[in-house]
Write a structure and sequence with these properties.
287 residues; mainly alpha; 77% helix; endopeptidase activity
Length: 287
Amino acid sequence: MSREVGERLTEYLQLPRTRRGDYGWGRVVAALVLLTVGCAAIVGGVGTALALASTADGSPPPVVGILQVGVIGLWVAIVWLVACTLFGMRFGDLVSWRSRVRWRLLGISTAISVLGLGAYTLALAAINGSSLVPLTGAIWLAILVALILVPIQAAAEELLFRAFVPQIILAKTGVNAVKYVVVAVISSVVFASLHGAGSIGGLIMFALFGVVFATLVYFTAGVEAAIALHAVNNLLVIVGGMLTGREAKPGEVDNALSPATFAQLGVMIAIAVVIAFIERRRTGTPR
């Protein structure tokens, strides 16, 4: 990897400065504090209220779990609010160098992710001899809710960890490949620490997942592909868990350093390579 990055990625990462003009580190710190307080308030306040309300009205446990995961989707509003008020950014500035959603890239990335991770999930189920649980109305409802909320949850995490935070830091320091790698690794470690990994192995694996997502941002100059891969992975973990009676969560990694988890990471890396290759061929540029 060269020390310089592509023009499109540079343009994407410089958007806070493009919209705001030069700014000091005080504005960066203020943004990070507001993001931390806002996101923590949503998880602590809304998440707790949801848990209490769902216990009171007797909602099905699978639906409750998905709704609690979906609370993270509200982070989108926090990221957008901070980006808009402190840096004058538009929502599209968070998504790609074109300052808009590239729906074709999002669709292609989703299809490739479904094929790759779907094949991995089916193969793992066959190896483990997993069988389907009785499909009750509660499970069908939970699957529907997951299909709606989990992509928003994945988008919220990508917009925070792979978009806005790297943007405001690198627009201030200047952009090159070394700085991008440093920021990507640090943000991936923070991302991993928030996923409740119960071991060093789990922390490492979640951080590596974050690095894969950051690599997709590097080669596509936006977060659409990272959102697609992240959302498909989480959906298959959650829905697959419900269908086999595990009620898995996206923050759950069983036996983090097991062959199955390394295989999952390998599949995700392969998917990222394919997406990057297709995007390079389509646009005529590697970044």
